[in-house]
Amino acid sequence: MEELYIKLDNLKLALDETKTIQEIKRLTKKISKNKELLELIEKYNYTQDERIKEKIISNEEFMEYKQQETELNLLILEINQELKKITKKDKCGL
Which range, of 12-16, 60-64, 71-75, averages the lowest pLDDT? Predict the structure, then answer.
């Protein structure tokens, strides 16, 4: 089990260095400074107005973030598949 914890720590370190994670961090900082976009998101959450949603979606920073978010979700799926393989091997060895 100790070996699994070591591998998970190594995985976390490796993930922090991936382009996707670096881009998400960069875009999160950039978006958090974009007051206009944040106000639009807040208004949309309150009103669910489709015109506001279109403005949000047309924002370049938001589009970049969503693209990186999709990449991250695909990476998470890959990791989960590999973890399932590892845990199946451990269970068979019992």
Answer: 12-16
Q: What is the pTM of this model?
A: 0.75
Q: Among residues of the chain, what percentage have pLDDT more than 70? A: 94
Distance of CA 8 to the CA centre of its chain: 18
CA distance 47 to 23: 30
* Helix or strand (DSSP H, E) at 69: helix 60-92
Question: Which residue has 């999160």 as its token pair?
Answer: 28
Locate 69 and state its tokens.
């978010």
How far is Cα 49 from Cα 28, in angstroms, rounded to an integer? 24
Cα dihedral sign for 16, 18, 19, 20? negative
